[in-house]
C-alpha cells in the first residue's frame, strides 16, 4: 500500500458520503478517484499531472466538481467530526478561536449544523470540561497554582496590599 492510499477502515467511513449519479453504472474506480482528489490537494500539483493509477485526470476532476457542488466535502467533515465525538476521540484543547489570528469570511455566518452533529459536539465539550475540572493545575515549580484577583479592582487591591 502506498502512502497516498486510504486504509479499508478509512474508506468505510468515507464511502457512504459519496453520492452516485442517478444514471449510469456504479463507478468501479470510485475509491481510486477519491484518492486522486486527495493526491491532487496533498501535492498541490495540477490535475493534468495526476498519475494514471487514479484514472484519467478529466474523470477525477469531473467527480471532484460533482462532489464539491453537492456539498460532499462539508458533509464528510461534519460526519467525521460527529463520529470522532461519539468515539471520544475529540481533543478540544486543539481548538483555537482567536479573532486576531483566525478570521472568518462574512459567508461563514449562519452555518447550519445538523442536530446529531451538534449533540455530539456538545457532549464532547461537556466531557472536556469535566476532564479539565478534575485536573489539578500546578505551576512551574510543582506547587499548586494560586488564584489571583482579576478585573478592574485587581490593581487597586494589589496596591493596597503593597502599601500596608
Walkthrough of the structure:
The chain has 164 residues and is an all-alpha fold. Among the domains are: 1-70, no CATH class; 72-90 and 114-132, no CATH class. It has helices spanning 8-14, 30-43, 57-70, 72-86, 115-134, 154-163. The chain is elongated.
Annotation keywords:
164 residues; single chain; elongated; mainly alpha
- Biggest sheet: strands, sense, closure? none
Mean pLDDT: 75
Q: Supply the helix-strand structural class.
A: mainly alpha
Our Rg estimate from Cα atoms comes to 24 Å
Task: Give the count of helical stretches.
Answer: 6
Quick description:
This protein is mainly α and 164 residues long. The chain contains 6 helices and no strands. Among the domains are: 1-70, no CATH class; 72-90 and 114-132, no CATH class.
Q: What topology emerges from the helices and strands here?
A:
Elements: H1 8-14, H2 30-43, H3 57-70, H4 72-86, H5 115-134, H6 154-163
Helix pairs in contact: 2-3, 4-5
Amino acid at each position: 500500500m502506498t502512502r497516498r492510499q486510504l486504509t479499508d477502515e478509512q474508506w468505510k467511513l468515507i464511502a457512504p458520503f459519496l453520492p452516485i449519479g442517478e444514471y449510469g453504472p456504479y463507478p468501479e474506480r470510485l475509491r481510486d478517484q477519491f484518492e486522486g482528489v486527495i493526491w491532487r490537494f496533498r501535492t498541490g500539483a495540477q490535475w493534468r499531472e495526476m498519475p494514471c493509477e487514479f484514472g484519467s485526470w478529466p474523470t477525477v476532476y469531473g467527480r471532484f466538481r460533482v462532489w464539491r457542488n453537492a456539498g460532499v466535502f462539508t458533509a464528510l467533515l461534519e460526519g467525521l467530526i460527529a463520529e470522532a465525538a461519539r468515539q471520544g476521540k475529540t481533543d478540544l484543547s486543539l481548538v483555537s478561536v482567536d479573532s486576531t489570528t483566525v478570521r472568518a469570511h462574512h459567508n461563514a455566518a449562519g452555518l447550519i449544523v445538523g442536530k446529531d452533529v451538534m449533540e455530539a459536539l456538545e457532549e464532547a465539550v461537556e466531557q472536556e470540561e469535566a476532564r479539565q475540572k478534575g485536573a489539578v493545575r500546578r505551576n512551574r515549580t510543582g506547587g499548586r497554582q494560586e488564584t489571583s484577583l482579576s478585573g478592574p479592582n485587581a490593581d487597586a487591591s494589589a496596591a493596597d496590599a503593597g502599601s500596608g
